[in-house]
Amino acid sequence: MQVTDKDENQLKEELDGIIEKIKKAQAGAADKTLEDVCGNMSDIPKIPLRTKKILKGHLSKVTAVHYCGDNR
User: Fold this and answer.
1) Beta carbons within 8 Å of 55's beta carbon, 6+ residues apart
2) Whole-model pTM over 0.70
3) Distance of alpha carbon 70 from alpha carbon 61, whole angstroms
């Protein structure tokens, strides 16, 4: 089944109409913008990061650590 230029143009027009219809529905349902909602928010708090333990003798990344139950 071959798609002709006439069919292709008709489908493109139909798709454009559906897209416009969706955009109008979204604009009608939007009561606030993202800037209105987030405009009065303060900056995120800084989280202090501390080094718990330093693993010596490793040249590359340590991907997994298992601690023994008797603290050895």
Assistant:
1) 62, 65
2) no
3) 25
